[in-house]
Amino acid sequence: MPLQPTIQHKILKVNGSTITSMTDSLAVESPLEIQLVWSENGKRVRQSISVTMRTPILDFELAIGFLFAEGMISSYEDVLQIRYGDNAQTEDLQGNVVVVELQPAVKVAIEKLDRHFYTTSSCGVCGKASIELVQNHTCYYLPPNTPKITANLLHQIPKKLREQQSLFEDTGGIHAAALFDQMGNLLCLCEDVGRHNALDKLIGKALKEHRLPLKDCIVLVSGRASFELIQKALMAGIPILAAVGAPSSLAVELADTYGMTLIGFLRGGQFNVYTGRERVDNGVGNL
């Protein structure tokens, strides 16, 4: 049974000399264990492959988005079924375990999965061979020079993201990943205490809806642009990633290597284009 994404907590609000007793909404951060079931030598194998700290909403999308970004599945058809854990001691623990069963014909090279890990909600997976993962597993190649977007469109999308961030509005402590079409229409928004989880949820939702590759879309993330977010976006065939915050050096390097347009500091009527400037039109032509 899924948990709730927010809880209420009693606080004292201090404003100068005024102290008020009230309740505040907190974004829930709880562990999600992803277990994988697959066929090997005629037998069904079940193994825990990841534990991540997440906000408990869209858990199934998070799980399949994670598996796709890790190269463990290539389409939603690889999934036989997905469910909450059935062997946990309590109902609450069941809600923190997602079991993904793969079709019998799906091959799983579990020994090649370098990322058996515990992750925090803030940093995701660190110190991994993600460049090799993109090279070896992605089946999507970014279309050169497309889609074309304008500076005006870019200035508009952060406001659209904020207007739809319901959990952020309630708690003030959550990240978002939003998917827009090339006209700036909001297609999907996912929230989580972890920026990497929010993008996994978005990709998992698109995978379930058979929308990959997202070759005509823009993704906007509410925080910084990390190396891992670029890797996940590349796996999903996303040509443009914009961030409200700064990109890391390795994020810029990876985006440049694979021809992605990477935009940072998209706020306050300005932005920086770090890679892929040919997709951005400032009103008088390409940058």
Write the topology of this structure.
Elements: E1 6-15, E2 18-27, E3 30-40, E4 43-54, H1 59-69, E5 79-84, H2 91-94, E6 97-102, E7 117-119, H3 130-137, E8 149-150, H4 151-164, H5 166-171, E9 175-181, E10 186-192, H6 195-208, E11 217-221, H7 227-235, E12 240-243, H8 249-257, E13 261-267, E14 270-275, E15 280-281
Parallel strand pairs: 3-6, 4-7, 8-15, 11-12, 12-13
Antiparallel strand pairs: 1-2, 3-4, 5-6, 9-10, 9-11, 13-14
Helix pairs in contact: 1-6, 3-7, 6-7, 7-8
Structure notes:
- There is one protein chain.
- The chain is an alpha/beta fold and 287 residues long.
- The protein has a domain at 149-281: Cytidine Deaminase, domain 2 (3-Layer(aba) Sandwich).
- 26% of the residues lie in helices and 34% in strands.
- It contains eight helices and 15 strands.
- The chain has helices at residues 59-69, 91-94, 130-137, 151-164, 166-171, 195-208, 227-235, 249-257, and strands at 6-15, 18-27, 30-40, 43-54, 79-84, 97-102, 117-119, 149-150, 175-181, 186-192, 217-221, 240-243, 261-267, 270-275, 280-281.
- The strands form four sheets. Strands 10-9-11-12-13-14 form a six-stranded mixed sheet, with helices on both faces. Strands 5-6-3-4-7 form a five-stranded mixed sheet, covered by helices on one side. It has a two-stranded antiparallel ribbon with strand order 1-2.
- Strand 12, helix 8 and strand 13 form a beta-alpha-beta unit.
- Helix 3 (130-137) packs parallel to helix 7 (227-235) and helix 7 runs parallel beside helix 8 (249-257).
- The radius of gyration is 20 Å and the shape is flat.
- Residues 116-128 have low confidence and may be disordered.
